[in-house]
Amino acid sequence: GAVIGILGGGQLGRMLAVAAARLGYKAHIYEPAANPPAADVAHALTTASYEDAGALRAFAQSVDVITYEFENIPTSALDLLESLKPIRPGRRALAVSQDRVAEKTFLNDLGLTTAPWASVETAEEMTAAVEKIGAPAILKTTRLGYDGKGQARLREASDAESAFAAMQGAPAILEGFVNFTAEVSVIAARGLDGQVSAYDPGENIHREGILHTTTVPATLRPAQRQDAVLLAARILNALDYVGVMGVELFVTPQGLLVNEIAPRVHNSGHWTQNGCAVDQFEQHIRAVTGWPLGDGSRHSDVVMENLIGDDITRLPDYAREPGTAIHLYGKAEARPGRKMAHINRVKPRS
Ligand code: ATP
Ligand code: MG
Ligand code: MG
């Protein structure tokens, strides 16, 4: 049978591999870290580094198509892999989502609204950026940030110096602080034939920078719901995208602002596992293998909750709850801030 290569062996890679298996594919996982969550569901596992050209070449030769669970794949590895097998979603989506300045530039060029922003690489640029954007604001490293890491908040302009120092010399972006009424995300898919399908937007609540819950349906007016789906489709089409994408949005009285995009299955899309006939993982496998997209309409109301660190000790209680589906990642050690599992609390659609 055909083999799907998946870069990254975390919980997203694990759930992609399970979905691949359900569609009759084998999953070859490439993950340099030890004991990855995806290992026990993988058909093959490569643990070499992304600098190992021989291992990358052998990996590419063993698979039919390559996809990924994270956007920070080193460019040199991508260059080599791309010369051997199709990578889906493609390079453009990666380039745009790896760098917050490229991302905001792309979104603004598409006519989409973001927080006001300025690029910050030097102390002088920081001063100019604070003059332009004002306070409150958030300074973020342009690359490699996730779960709110690599960010410093400026309550007032005088926080500029300490915020800049917190970046430790890494290129950064200063964003005006958005007074949102809610955060929502759209999980959308685009097939190899250009067909687009979006899941119902979910409403997200974060704790300490990490996603805590996603609730569907989101409290959005019908016009906002349609705006959210249409702007996601615009992003996918502009990138000639193939696969599932997560689009994070701020809801404000002035309309929807795009926070960031993720060129992969997304934590805020985990509710689809118990709210839809075809979840985001199957949808992604369908897209990257050229299948028609599946039915992503929502048949249930769902609240997804991440179990982080010690939250996992409450698992026996969740296991007794009626209507609660449990998704464990197979991680042995529960460190603070580490995503261990999620639960979906499901009710028939209201
Ligand atoms: P992720 O894990 O989603 O990739 P990340 O580290 O890339 O997170 P962001 O999504 O940029 O970080 O920010 C994390 C959270 O911080 C957002 O979901 C939002 O709650 C808040 N936040 C980020 N940027 C802004 C902003 N400009 N104004 C207000 N709040 C913001
Ligand atoms: Mg992010
Ligand atoms: Mg985010």
Automatic annotation (TrEMBL):
<keyword id="KW-0067">ATP-binding</keyword>
<dbReference type="GO" id="GO:0046872">
    <property type="term" value="F:metal ion binding"/>
</dbReference>
<keyword id="KW-0658">Purine biosynthesis</keyword>
<comment type="pathway">
    <text>Purine metabolism; IMP biosynthesis via de novo pathway; 5-amino-1-(5-phospho-D-ribosyl)imidazole-4-carboxylate from 5-amino-1-(5-phospho-D-ribosyl)imidazole (N5-CAIR route): step 1/2.</text>
</comment>
<comment type="subunit">
    <text>Homodimer.</text>
</comment>
<comment type="function">
    <text>Catalyzes the ATP-dependent conversion of 5-aminoimidazole ribonucleotide (AIR) and HCO(3)(-) to N5-carboxyaminoimidazole ribonucleotide (N5-CAIR).</text>
</comment>
<dbReference type="InterPro" id="IPR003135">
    <property type="entry name" value="ATP-grasp_carboxylate-amine"/>
</dbReference>
<dbReference type="Pfam" id="PF22660">
    <property type="entry name" value="RS_preATP-grasp-like"/>
</dbReference>
<feature type="binding site">
    <location>
        <position position="183"/>
    </location>
    <ligand>
        <name>ATP</name>
    </ligand>
</feature>
<feature type="binding site">
    <location>
        <begin position="145"/>
        <end position="151"/>
    </location>
    <ligand>
        <name>ATP</name>
    </ligand>
</feature>
<comment type="function">
    <text>Catalyzes the ATP-dependent conversion of 5-aminoimidazole ribonucleotide (AIR) and HCO(3)- to N5-carboxyaminoimidazole ribonucleotide (N5-CAIR).</text>
</comment>
<feature type="binding site">
    <location>
        <begin position="259"/>
        <end position="260"/>
    </location>
    <ligand>
        <name>ATP</name>
    </ligand>
</feature>
<feature type="binding site">
    <location>
        <position position="206"/>
    </location>
    <ligand>
        <name>ATP</name>
    </ligand>
</feature>
<dbReference type="InterPro" id="IPR011054">
    <property type="entry name" value="Rudment_hybrid_motif"/>
</dbReference>
<dbReference type="GO" id="GO:0005524">
    <property type="term" value="F:ATP binding"/>
</dbReference>
<feature type="binding site">
    <location>
        <begin position="175"/>
        <end position="178"/>
    </location>
    <ligand>
        <name>ATP</name>
    </ligand>
</feature>
<dbReference type="GO" id="GO:0006189">
    <property type="term" value="P:'de novo' IMP biosynthetic process"/>
</dbReference>
<comment type="similarity">
    <text>Belongs to the PurK/PurT family.</text>
</comment>
<dbReference type="InterPro" id="IPR016185">
    <property type="entry name" value="PreATP-grasp_dom_sf"/>
</dbReference>
<dbReference type="InterPro" id="IPR013815">
    <property type="entry name" value="ATP_grasp_subdomain_1"/>
</dbReference>
<dbReference type="GO" id="GO:0004638">
    <property type="term" value="F:phosphoribosylaminoimidazole carboxylase activity"/>
</dbReference>
<dbReference type="GO" id="GO:0005829">
    <property type="term" value="C:cytosol"/>
</dbReference>
<dbReference type="InterPro" id="IPR011761">
    <property type="entry name" value="ATP-grasp"/>
</dbReference>
<dbReference type="InterPro" id="IPR040686">
    <property type="entry name" value="PurK_C"/>
</dbReference>
<dbReference type="Pfam" id="PF17769">
    <property type="entry name" value="PurK_C"/>
</dbReference>
<dbReference type="InterPro" id="IPR054350">
    <property type="entry name" value="PurT/PurK_preATP-grasp"/>
</dbReference>
<dbReference type="GO" id="GO:0034028">
    <property type="term" value="F:5-(carboxyamino)imidazole ribonucleotide synthase activity"/>
</dbReference>
<dbReference type="InterPro" id="IPR005875">
    <property type="entry name" value="PurK"/>
</dbReference>
<feature type="binding site">
    <location>
        <position position="100"/>
    </location>
    <ligand>
        <name>ATP</name>
    </ligand>
</feature>
<keyword id="KW-0436">Ligase</keyword>
<dbReference type="Pfam" id="PF02222">
    <property type="entry name" value="ATP-grasp"/>
</dbReference>
<feature type="binding site">
    <location>
        <position position="140"/>
    </location>
    <ligand>
        <name>ATP</name>
    </ligand>
</feature>
<protein>
    <recommendedName>
        <fullName>N5-carboxyaminoimidazole ribonucleotide synthase</fullName>
        <ecNumber>6.3.4.18</ecNumber>
    </recommendedName>
</protein>
<keyword id="KW-0547">Nucleotide-binding</keyword>
<feature type="domain" description="ATP-grasp">
    <location>
        <begin position="104"/>
        <end position="289"/>
    </location>
</feature>
